[in-house]
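tool=predict chain=A
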Amino acid sequence: MGRPKESLPIGDTTMLGWQCRTLISCTEVVVTVGRDPSQALPEIPAVVDVTSDEIPGEGPLAAIAAGLRRLRDKHGFGDRDAAMTVGCDQPLLTAATVRWLSEQIGDADVLMPQANNKLQPLTAIYRIAALEPALKLLAQGSRRPRELAAVAKSRVLTEAELRNHDPELRFLRNLNNPADYEAVRRELEP
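tool=predict ok
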């Protein structure tokens, strides 16, 4: 994109601000995980808890672990409590989809959508119990959050299940280039 995605304007806020608002509307606690403590984040609602990767530069699995640990240690979440993960570059996620996904987890520790024959670990739900398997993967040198689906008690949502909820899979759409960003930005303008 040529600049940090989290600071890109969308609607009357930024991409990160947009995601925070969506999650605030349908979850108990919102935690934003930055790459490292020095990362400058755009303005976000004051109720959002900000932390950073415990292992800077190690990617999304480390960020998921940092977020789960923060929920457990600071907010008192127990092993059966769950958290939604989402990238700041997915502004088409809705509160209705977050609620629908949370209803699908059942007794699993990880709920991971699968679309286009690929697991979608950055738009998934993880119970706090998934922290220990995540930490073990990190200790073994793994950095891929998709691997959590293989080592934790997981439920994979099939593309057919996803399309029953969202026929176009809009909630999984992430913005990786300027054309995608401009199209969605125009769509979401007030």
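The two ends are 23 Å apart (CA to CA). Residues 60-73 form the longest helix (14 residues).
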